[in-house]
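Sample A.
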Amino acid sequence: MYETLPLAGPARPSASEANEAIRHLVETWADGEWPSEAYEFLLGEWAAATREEVGAAACHS
């Protein structure tokens, strides 16, 4: 089992939190099969958070 972000309820992580989780996954990955499902999940979380943050910044401009 791969360690992912500790999410509390339906809250989405920030882009920086998702990025940190991706870094952690890459840095702690050992030889063997690449954890593609975990990576793809975290990448999706990062992309969604980035879109939300960019959209929020655009609304406040």
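Sample B.
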Amino acid sequence: MEIPPTNPPTSNPQAPSIFEPGTSIKINADDRSLSFTISRCFTPITKSVVLLAHNDEFSRSPVIIKIFDEEVAARALESRGAPLPVDSFGSSELRDPEPEEPEGRAARAALWEEYYYALMVESFESERSAYEALHTLQGTFLPRLLLTGLIDFSDSRAIHPPAVVLEYISGVTLRDIEPNLLSLDVCAPLVSCIDSFVEFGVFHGDINPGNIIFQPAERPVRAVVLDFGCAGVKVEGEDEDTWLFTVNFLGDSTRIRTYLREKGIHIPDLPEPDLSHMN
């Protein structure tokens, strides 16, 4: 999740017009409806739509709204040449040549819509469930999850995509930070936190330099992990060996050490986590 500069641009030509700065967006959550004014839509949009927005009655500080919108995801992924989906959600037919007759093309379009909708629901559930499993880390190494709900497009859309509202963390990403601003005092606790995810039954699945924020940017004293849209949460009864194979294959702990090493920070491997309480 990209963090905007101190003075973000007032508009963004890459953002869909419904997410332009100054427009309002409504979220229905439980028994209430909240309207937020958009300050910025982060680009490039890779899958979910990430907005910086505010509602002074909800929060005195700006918030991040992450929207899992299948229409926007489809445009973003297709523009990047994303690979065709594997056989899931009935998507094997999407690998067939494009039908010539109108009925066939309409059926193909419906399959694509189904695929992208399922992809976004899965990503939303990953994000929500990971934050819930890691609730004790919210406010320190993770942003606070403030709200979940559905975006209300009124009558203009048949599907109202799910969204999460998160605490806004300003700072500088691991990708952009100058190496001389990093220290073991900040990086070692970050690595320990990521190592501990498995003890909570969670893997992040997308540890990269854009998903780690250091705060404040000028002299960091805190590191925060963002973007759990590719995360996984261990379910009751799941085979322990299979779970640990997946955790090791995705390599959250290895990845963060590698990226920090590239910035000149070397963190030794930590002892194997105690997973006895998860049996």
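B remarks: The chain is about 30% helix and 20% strand. The longest strand covers residues 32-41.
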